[in-house]
Amino acid sequence: MSKNVLIGNAWPYANSSLHLGHIAGLMSGDLLARYHRLKGDKVMFVSGSDCHGTPITERARKEGKEPKEIADSYDKEFREVFNKMNFSYDLFSSTDTDYHKEHVQKLFRKLYDNGYIYEKIEPQCYCPKCEKFLADREVILTCPECGEETKGDQCDKCLHVPTSEELIGGNCIVCGTKTIEKNNKILYLGLPKFQEKIEKHTAEVKDGWRVNARNETEKYLKQGLKERAVTRDLTWGVDIPVEGYEDKRMYVWIDAVLGYLTDTMRVCEERGWDWEDFWKEGRNNKIYMCHGKDNIVFHSIILNALLLGQEDNYHLVDTIVSTEYLNYNDQKFSKSKKIGITALEALEKYPVDSLRYHLISNGPEKKDTNFTPEDFVATHNGELLNKFGNLVNRTLKFKGIEKIEVATLDSEIKEEIEKIYSEVSDLIERLEFREATEKIMDLVEKANKYYDTQEPWKQIKEDKQAFKNTIFTCANIIANLSNLFEPIMPTTTKKIREYLELPEPSWKPIYIEKEIDLTSKNIEPLFERLKID
């Protein structure tokens, strides 16, 4: 029975270019979306640019521009990147659309009316020189947990989120002045009210999460959830739909994580679908959230709290797909230090499907991994060109053959084809994407071994029927590889389907049932050899 599957990719801040580390964390979403569509599920795959909050205002301040100018520029760049990476979004939106703002305000107001958002007067970080209250990200301090210098929203090293008390005595990011306490009117989200329900839900579903997501979420729950401010003293962002808060804006992480819901509403409205199929209980649905490890709590705790607070039978997040970090030449990506490569730069240098394959097969699923040009070229030339590409090329461009004739499929190979779909499915649904890729590549290697063992260059002279059987068997393997590799390398698999006149891909064995004329096909190598610059 098909499912209603919601897949949300984290919304990147529209304040700087995407690098390969970002893409590595988001590849999971596209793989899952494509996989579930092949399975016949009804899929909603959404994301967008996070255009609000202090990251954008800080970038605008540094460049002497308006926040909207900065956000719009990077939003345009993000769309170009994801389009070139062949991400199959149903909608890549922006938090700066009127549709998003309107619906987020309604959801916020519902939380307020239900008593989960409430007012407090309390001391807050204030810069006496700038004469303004500071958002957490506008404060530089020494992390009380690990001792590293960090911004006040979250420590990059240990992921500790400083409390409002810990921010006092830090330094203003604009002028460097030491912060002081000053009373301020703030709206808070009462996270402790959701502690029991989130604990219960997490215990029920956490076995399907990445280990880092389980550990980080359980750590926060064990410490006890603490109320969290949902308003900021900013002029850029979503207006607060509560009287007396006209001069404040919505905390960016409330705004952004609710974007998965507003995007779904918008797509369903345009298509005539029911958005509740993806977001309400009892609809045979499943929700994935895909992001880096620094975003875990916002999806496993805050988003679920916002849904619970609607008191309207919402389905909570089922699966957290959280990656570790991808580094570049053993160093953290850093634009200021000129370490790494942006996504656009990588797409100018490397074939897109090779990038997709490498970022999945060498992805930071369980630990930090490393990207180097040398490793990438080795993957491309070794696995894609020499193994997969070679299998396709020597089968479909065998000298002297003009067609693939229907013949006898090798029984052992057929057995391999019949069982590999369930094996790869099991790995994908366990979030073992690297192992899933290895399993598919194992079939490529078995096919090449079969080809070499059969020696078709001899068979064509000595046993024409055996030759036909060999080519037919290899062509059927390639046909099924076009299904299996579809979530990973969609451009490459499309070429194969054109060569073999295959139907649209699906997640089940496919067999060639008619003669394929190769003379009318402009069959080119799937991959070209790369050199290291």
- For the record, the CATH class of the largest domain is Alpha Beta
By secondary-structure content and strand pairing, the structural class works out as alpha/beta
Count of structural domains: 3
In CATH, the topology of the largest domain is named Rossmann fold
Task: Supply Rg.
Answer: 26 Å
CATH superfamily of the largest domain: HUPs
Strand content bin: 5-15%
CATH structural architecture of the largest domain = 3-Layer(aba) Sandwich
Unreliable residue stretches: none
Mean pLDDT: 94
Taking the sheet with the most strands, its summary is: 5 strands, parallel
User: Main sheet: which strands, in order across?
Assistant: 3-2-1-13-14
* Total E-strand runs: 18
Structure annotation, total helices: 19
**Overall form:** elongated
